Amino acid sequence: VDTHIHAAACINQKHLLRFIKKSYQIDADRVVYSTKEKNLTLKELFAKLKMHPYDLTVDSLDVHA
Questions:
Q1: Could you list the residue range(s) of the whole structural domain that residue 34 is in?
Q2: pLDDT band for position 25 (50/70/90)?
Q3: Cα–Cα distance, 48 to 65 (Å, whole number)
Q4: CA nearest to 35, candidates 49, 27, 45, 25
Q5: Which tens digits make up the pLDDT trace of 26-61?
Q6: What's the number of domains the chain is made of?
Q7: 63 contacts 16 by C-beta, under 8 angstroms
Q8: Which domain of life is it from (predicted)?
Q9: Are the beta carbons of 58 and 17 closer than 8 angstroms?
Q10: Cα–Cα distance, 12 to 3 (Å, whole number)
Q11: Does 43 reside within a domain?
């Protein structure tokens, strides 16, 4: 069995961008980042980055397969 996979090839930049925007619309209060000290929701994470999901572009994601 060959278990050598490239996870980056599972989703392209356009689909990732669409997923982020859709997730923000539907489920912005979901915890997406967790440390011992605190949890951040998707909405809080974008606020901390001083961004809105619609500010993102395919180029700004800087994801390469």
A1: 13-63
A2: very high
A3: 27
A4: 45
A5: 999 999 999 999 999 999 999 999 999 989 888 888
A6: 1
A7: yes
A8: Eukaryota
A9: yes
A10: 21
A11: yes
